Each structure stands twice: as structure tokens, then as C-alpha cells.
Amino acid sequence: MRGPHNIWRLIRTGATLERTGAMQVVLDAFEAPPPLRFVARTLGLPFKWLGYKGDPDMPPATRALTALGPAYIKFGQILSTRPDVVGDELALQLRVLQDKLPPFSVEEAKAEVQRELGVPVDQIFSDFSAPVAAASIAQVHKATFAANGEAVAVKVLRPNIEKAFRKDIDAFYLAARMVEIFSPGSRRLRPMEVIEHFDGVVRGELDLRLESSAASEFAANTKDDEGFQLPVIKWEYSARRVMTLEWADGAPMGDNDAIDAAGHDRVHLSERVLQLFLNHALRDGYFHADMHQGNLKVAPNGDVIAYDFGIMGHIDEYTRRVYAEILFGFIRKDYKRVAEVHFEAGYVPADKDVDEFARALRAVGEPIFGMDATKISMGRLLNYLFEVTERFGMETRTELILLQRTMVVVEGVARSLNPQINIWQVASPIVSDYISKSIGPKAVLSDFAKTARVIARFGPRLPAMVETALVRQSNAEETPTRRGLAERVFLAVVLGISVGVGGAACLILVDFVF
Fold first, then answer.
1. Which terminus of the chain faces fewer neighbouring Cβ atoms within 10 Å, N or C?
2. Is residue 284 among the annotated active site residues?
3. 199-241: pLDDT as tens digits
């Protein structure tokens, strides 16, 4: 339940960071300026005694986040993939949040499986192991089917995890509201919408039936992708709080020593991980949105194996084209075009100067191209990007949150495998191929064909629609309103397609008007 009582939760958050010693670690990792350090310590120290103690055997940051709950753990998982942002030491400490959290008992897991599947565990499995991985929402057991001896992974949600997440997210809503009230300049970041988006993602992740469905769709999209594997879902042994899938053998993506010992090429793997993500995002518009090391393995044959499909991202065709054009512009160092795309898509207010924005983007891009990857401070770069978005009044695009977050995570995974990776060079062939297929004459013809098919379905209704448009137009004012102009364009499209002349041009005009 949302409300002022969540202030207590926020106070305990700061107090826990102080009590566990994580406050200083976090401030140092993000290179926080002196004013922010002063405010954080001033607010945290008086309430230190109210903080959760956590597990003293854990490093400070990990200790604090695990004590605070699953939503905080999710945040730590993201940071664990970015040693270039938080530093190698903190990233390594946070790595345990991916799949090495304290588990719940085997007995509880078996009881949950029986409740969900309606059959005693011993009738389904001849063997049911202790937890092999435990994350913020669920844990995984290795089991063996009694019928055929097949090894499978059984994922079981944590007891009462729904209630725990609800409590965390309620506090996040309050924090977002406070940001909007006390920092008007931050409203452009749409903090409430961001939390609402996160809330929706989490709700989907807490129903394993949806995860099973997502895995099935993802498998259908990627079945022909070379060097990529997905475990098969066992639908008859999956339910809302239990999911059973094929066991995947391989080296953990976060264990470079194991990858090296298996003889895999980490440079090649780093490129493949990044290119797979870009392919899925641009080609399919449907991608794995939680691709940290804990959800990836390297198969004995060198294939990348992905699992844990609780968070999947979807972007429509128009957004994919915008995203691809922005990436392509950066790859070609065409900062003017990158700036124009931002304006055309409405990401930057129309009253801003496109040339100034292009120069700001150049200041972002040139250091990345001209400097060794190991010497780039992503923390400083992200800080400058934030300044740029503030200066040009750019608002948070909630439809891009998962895409942007996953891009950050995947890049972090790639850099952990190969610190010298040049992300633009690796991305170039994937983005260029998408651009060639999706932007240009072929794309216009394809769009025209799709639109014609849609209009054809309305064939029996077209005469009445045309008559209605003509009547409205005859009653319109002499100076056409936007609505009147739209109706004129619609009429032009109908007539153009009917006679087979000028259809493509009409469609382009429709896209502009609407």
C-alpha cells in the first residue's frame, strides 16, 4: 500500500547503507561530488542504528542490498555488470547477487512444487538436488525425471516474494513522488513512470507461466541463430510458481577462468553476446532484457546459452528504426544525423538547436572512438550524458527503458570478457544490415504493401468511409484544421490506392500528418 508510511522504508534504506558500511563504498564507486557526499552522510548517520544489520560475512554493498530486499538486489545485479562504472572491486562483490544469494530449504521448494503441480515430487523426479543457484526472486534445483532419466532445471519462486517486492516498490513510488515534488528539474526524467514501468516488469516476472511463454516465443524467433541456444520448456511440469526446463551444461559467463580452461575464445564470445542482443532487438523487436552473467553460460561447443526469461523487452518497428539510425550515426561519426533523428522522433523539444545538440553528441562520441576502451571512464561519460539530457530538456522515454538498461548490461558483460572491445566496430555489421533492409526504397515498398493489406480488409467499408470524409470536408471551415487535413489525406490515400497511382507518396504523407 502506497503512502507516507513508506518514509520509514526510505529512512531504513539510508540507515542500512550506513550501518553496513556501504554508503562510503557506493559514494566512492560513483565518484560522488563533495556536496552529495555531505548530504548523504548527514541524512544517514543520525539513523544508522535503525539500519538492517545484514550478513557480516558479506562485503558492505552486497550485505546492504541483500538485507534491504529483492528490488534492491535487482539494482545491484545491474551494477555488477558494470566494472567500468563502479570499479572492478565493487562489481566483483555484487556478482554474488546474480545467482549466489542465501537459498531457502529443499523441503520448502518441494512443497511448492507439489502445491503447484498437484503431484508429489517423488512421483515426478527420481532426484531433486539442493539449490544450485539462488537469485532475488527464485532459486533453481537440478532434478531428474523418473520416467526417462532426463536432467532438468526446476525453478521455484521464493516464499512470500510477491509481498516483499510489493513493499519495496511501494517505497520506490514514494521516493519518485518526493523527487518530483522537491526537484522540479527532475520531472523530465518521469520518475513515477519509470517506477510504474519497473512495477509492471516485476509483476510479469512473478508469474512463471508468463516466463515460460516468453521463452517459447524467444526460441521461435532465434531458432536459426548460429552460436545461440535456449533450454526447452517442459510445459506439463510448469505452473505459476514453478517452471521446469531442459538442463543446460556449460561454463558460467561470469567465470573467466572456467571459460579459459574450457578453451573458449573470450574475444569472440564478447562480440557474439553483443551482436546477438542487437540482432534480437533490431531484427525481432523482442529481446532478453536481463542478460547479466548469471543468466548466461558457454556451452561445451562454444555456443552462448541464455536462460531466465522473466524480463523480456519489446520495441515496435518505428522505435527500432529510430534506435538503429542513432547507432548507425554514431558508428559513422555523423553526429548531425544523430541529432536530427532525435529531433524527428520527438526525443528533443523542437525549440532546441539541432547544431548545438550535434556538438554535444560529438563530445560524447569522440572520446569513445579515440581512446583505448580500458581508459574510458563510463562513470564520467554517463554523468556528462545526464548533463546533456538536462540541458536539452530530454524526457525519459519509458518505452526505451528496458532497451537502454539491457544495452548497458550487455555491454558490461562483453567488457568483462574482453576489456578492449570496441562496441561500435562490433555493432557495425548488425546495424548496417538492419539499416539496409529497413530504411530505403525496399522498406518503403514493404511498408506500402503492409498498409495496402490492412486497407484491403476494410474494402467493404471503404465507400461509406469515403462518403463520410467527403461530407465532413464539405462542412469544414475554409481554413482546414488538423483534423480536416488528416481526413483529406485519408481520402487521398483511399483514392490513390484505388487507382494504383501515387499510393506510396500518400502513405508517406499520412505518416507525416498522423
1. N
2. no
3. 777 777 789 999 999 999 999 999 999 999 999 999 999 999 9
